[in-house]
Amino acid sequence: MMTRQGMHYRCGNCGHHAVMWLDDTLETHDENHKPVPFTISCPNCAPGFMTHVDWHEDIHLHEPMPLTEDMNRFENRENCECGCPVFAGHVIPTEGELNNTIQEIFGGGL
User: Fold this and answer.
1) Residue 61's closest CA among 29, 89, 87, 22?
2) pTM
């Protein structure tokens, strides 16, 4: 995977900050457009959510660079309608994935 763009996210609960790098196949603004989420779960605190902040400080590279396992990033996964957040190798489940897991564990709901 390669990247050309990084976005700043900050948690409204604990203040945790992260630069999230985008897989080059996300936010392409063409017929294959797949967005990244504006709000994601915070990996630092359970109740918090991180939102895209400081848009004017987003990072735009002239040349692509490799995305590595130690980088916070959005990956383009087939089972996700938008970029899937990964924090230094740890996938943060989407709301839909959490609901599916709960249904699998509890047999259709609580």
Assistant:
1) 22
2) 0.78
